[in-house]
Amino acid sequence: MKTRQNIEVGAGAVIRASDGGWLGGCSWKVTARTSAEVELLAIKGGMLVAINARYKKVTMETDAQSLKGILEDLKKSGTHEFAAILKDIGELLKGACKFEFNYIRREANEVAHHLAKLAQQLEGHIMTHDSVPPCARLAYEKNLKDSNDSS
Predict the structure, then answer these.
(1) pLDDT tens across 30-58, in order?
(2) What's an example of a GO molecular-function annotation for this chain (predicted)?
(3) pLDDT of 67-80, one tens digit each?
(4) Would you call 75 exposed, middle or buried from its count of C-beta atoms within 10 A (0-12, 13-18, 19+)?
């Protein structure tokens, strides 16, 4: 059986207002074996960012549809290969911040992907973004326009 190697990759989280406006973002490095593990670590990291910012209600978006179902039924995750991460997420769900999980198309998650790519270039392990970083500006403006067009 082939053992997968841990690799260091980037993760990104975007915090938007209900109208899609930029509230903040974060880029950081994670060590993982699979893209699903990276996505779960990004979700956990995004939850921690929201909790530390003292948000009360947050909608988490993921382009990994299979993970959305797992996150909605954490009771069944005891033997899952990512049980430790899922347990951590479960503990975060018990706090004051209320989370909802939504699936979005990969194209709609482009800004977070740009922040994740930015993380790979960091000297340290984490960077916060009070404004939209230049590398994500076009994707952000497109998402904002698309969300305004669909309203």
Answers:
(1) 999 998 899 999 999 999 999 999 999 99
(2) nucleic acid binding
(3) 877 887 776 666 67
(4) exposed
Longest dimension (CA), the chain: 50
Contact 77, 63 (CB under 8 A): no
Strand pairing of 22-32 and 126-129? antiparallel
Domain range summary for the chain, segments of one domain joined by +: 7-149
The residue behind tokens 């230049």 is 134
CA distances from 149 to 19, 118, 130, 136, 146 (A): 12, 28, 25, 20, 5
Distances (CA, A) of 106 to 58, 64, 103, 128, 139: 20, 8, 9, 22, 12
Alpha carbon distance 109, 62 (integer Å):
7
Q: SS3 of 107, please? A: helix
> Which fold, 7-149?
Nucleotidyltransferase; domain 5 (3.30.420)
Q: Nearest to residue 49, comparing CAs of 111, 117, 131, 128?
A: 128
Residues 6 or more apart whose Cβ sits within 8 Å of residue 149: none
Determine the angle formed by the axes of helices 137-149 and 110-119, rounding to 10 degrees. Answer: 160
